[in-house]
Amino acid sequence: MAPVVARACRGLLDAEAVSSRRLAAGSRSVVYRVRLADGHRVVVKVYAATARRNALTEARVSTAAADFVAVPPVLAVGLVPSLGSTALITRDLGTVTLEQAVAEGRFPYRYALRRAVALLKGFHRIPAWSLPVPPRPFADHVASLARRCGSSTLLHIEPALECIASRISVRRPVWCHGDVHFGNIVISADGADHLVDFPHIWHGPPEFDLAQTLTMTNALAPDDLHAIKRHYGTPVDTGLVAALVVFHTLRCWVHSTPHPRDQQLWAARFRALAARHPELFRNPTRLTAGRTIR
């Protein structure tokens, strides 16, 4: 067991951890599933010393969201004694995700998409004043992507970026989760869906989240967009969604692992979008012909 897990449970919960398993690791955080001596199970997310604000923000988001959508209850958040890192501890709701349920054939894909949209709709009801997250313009997202792939690559989606810039300012902003996909939805023992993982929260148009969900679930057919629009209920700018899907797809490609399979998957999706929405690309013929852009 990682010493940081044992110290976090002892210092923040006054409980002894008897076993742990690492679930995920990022550049500045690691997530563990932990069994305590009293038999209870918790999830411990450990943040690097430089990411303490992220831990506190994620705890506040979870607390604020709990009035509008099911989330894992926060049990504790704070500094890990003697180590300088910060831990966020939540109740463990189990191992079954919506992604697993779809893969096992328990839920049809379109039904799972409807459940994901229902969570988004609830999350978007969080009041603007309830979270101490500084405003961030969409241009920051573009600049961050440019640092990873270069401005020359962004030129390929210049029409999409222009479309986003012209439409985004007239939409009512909401708190966006920023990464809703089937793997970030945990199904508890009573069958309820719970939204997890809040480091990417952003105050922007709801289409940002809807487009991200379409992108991450590969729901890119016209029928999928119509289904999301119908299930979300309130008016959706489908033109803005399409442009944001282009942006999110390029971002996923840029951030994907260097494994050839992942690179080919996102490249194929990007080229499929160029064929379906040529008006959102600078030179769609070059892309659909299979020429590389990176």
UniProtKB/TrEMBL annotation:
The keyword Disulfide bond does not apply. InterPro entries: AGP_Transferase, Aminoglycoside_PTrfase, Kinase-like_dom_sf. Residues 21-236 form the Aminoglycoside phosphotransferase domain. One of its GO terms (molecular function) is transferase activity. Pfam families: APH. It comes from the Bacteria. The keyword Isomerase does not apply. Keywords: Transferase. This is Aminoglycoside phosphotransferase family protein. It comes from Streptomyces himalayensis subsp. himalayensis.
